Amino acid sequence: MNLTAAIPTTDSVAIIREGWNLLSEQLGIEKATKFVILIERGKGDTVQEIADYWGNTRIEDIHNQIMNFTQKLRQTKTFA
Predict the structure, then answer these.
(1) What is the pTM of this model?
(2) What angle do CA 1, 9, 57 make, to 5 degrees?
(3) How far, in Å, CA of 78 to CA of 55, rounded?
(4) How high is the pLDDT of residue 22?
(5) What is the C-alpha to C-alpha distance for residues 1 and 4, in angstroms, rounded to an integer?
(6) Strand, coil or helix: what is 43?
(7) Which of 18, 31, 36, 61 could form a disulfide linkage to 27, CB 3.0–4.6 angstroms apart?
(8) Are 1 and 55 in contact (CB under 8 A)?
(9) Are 12 and 18 in contact (CB under 8 A)?
């Protein structure tokens, strides 16, 4: 599976972080989390959506992709 389109850019991560900070400052962590959950609802069957997204990718490969991504973010200092 090619995750190029699925991995956020450094700019988008910064915007997401800024938005979360503003949202959580105004609403508090609990309400901000509930808000995000409400607007991020899937279109139906979450299990099917995950299966469609990852396909037959092995869990080890998913883990490696996530670890590589977080390492790159830490190197750019946009991820704590």
Answers:
(1) 0.43
(2) 15
(3) 29
(4) 92
(5) 9
(6) coil
(7) 31
(8) yes
(9) no
Q: With DSSP H G I counted as helix, E B as strand and the rest as coil, what are the percentages for the chain, rounded to 5?
A: 70, 0, 30
* Residue positions counted in the chain: 80
Distance CA 75, CA 67 (A): 12
Dist. CA 9–CA 17, nearest whole Å: 12
Question: What confidence tens digit (pLDDT) does each residue in 53-80 have?
Answer: 888 888 898 888 888 888 887 777 655 5
CA distance 51 to 59: 12
Name every residue whose Cβ is closer than 8 Å to that of residue 26 and which is 6 or more positions away in sequence.
32
d(CA 9, CA 12): 5
CA-to-CA separations, 58 to 26, 72, 77, in angstroms, rounded:
40, 21, 29
